[in-house]
Amino acid sequence: MFTLINTVENKIIxxxxxxxxxxxxxxxxxxxxxxxxxxxxxxxxxKEYIEEFCGNLxxxxxxx
Length: 64
What we know:
Elements: E1 2-6, E2 11-16, H1 19-32, H2 43-53, E3 57-61
Antiparallel strand pairs: 1-2, 1-3
Helix pairs in contact: 1-2
């Protein structure tokens, strides 16, 4: 399970249960940010995008 938090507003953006849901959500954010040159095909791409381009977001993982 993943929790995506906006650290500026201290607000939970999304709680996602599967890798595919996280990839889809980050792709939505990527398109909103007009980052068309970056492709998110897997979980590692999604995590990298958050780290590199989303300074206001934090990703928490719960590996139950």
